[in-house]
Amino acid sequence: MPTVALADDPNDAAMRNAAARAHDREMTRQLNREEGARVRQRDARSTPRWRVAGDDEHLARSRDHERAMADYARNRARYERDMLRWRRAVAACRAGDYFACDN
Questions:
Q1: Residue 20's CB: how many other CB atoms inside 10 A?
Q2: For residue 79, what are the CA distances in angstroms to 56, 68, 72, 85?
Q3: Would you list the DSSP string of the chain?
Q4: Nearest 5°: phi and psi at 81?
Q5: CB 82 within 8 A of CB 74
Q6: Is the pLDDT assigned to residue 66 strictly greater than 80?
Q7: pTM exceeds 0.85 for this model
Q8: φ and ψ of 9, to 5 deg
Q9: How deeply is 15 buried, as exposed, middle or buried, from its count of CB atoms within 10 A (0-12, 13-18, 19+)?
Q10: 63 C-beta neighbours (distance < 10 Å), count
């Protein structure tokens, strides 16, 4: 059986000792750090230079776009409320409520 299959086995006699578990935990952290560094290096090599240079500008444009979309949604909701109020006033006016005609 491969040793990987025994990882985190609660019945593993070697892991009953607290020091052994701490050592295993530290080895896992070290392996994760090394793999993370490898992935970052790989990504840095594969990321186009123009993308790295323009990231700040891209992020700023993205934030501006998100703000504009939020403003649009608020304005659209206000417009819909105003139109609903106006339609109700028109219906009331047509039904004979002449005070509603002034709105």
A1: 13
A2: 34, 16, 10, 10
A3: --GGGGTT-TT-GGGSSHHHHHHHHHHHHHHHHHHHHHHHHHHHHHS-HHHHHTHHHHHHHHHHHHHHHHHHHHHHHHHHHHHHHHHHHHHHHHTT-TTGGG-
A4: -65, -45
A5: no
A6: yes
A7: no
A8: -80, 115
A9: middle
A10: 10
Check if the beta carbon of residue 26 is closer than 8 Å to that of residue 20. Answer: no
> What is the distance between the alpha carbons of residues 54 and 56, in angstroms, rounded to a whole number?
6
pLDDT, tens digit, 9 for 90 and up, residues 4-30: 555 566 677 777 788 888 898 899 999
Tokens 């004979």 appear where?
96
What's the whole-number mean pLDDT along residues 64-74?
Answer: 96
Alpha carbons 65 and 86: distance in angstroms, whole number: 31
Given a contact cutoff of 8 angstroms between Cβ atoms, the answer to whether 93 and 101 are in contact is yes
Q: Which amino acid is at 103?
A: N
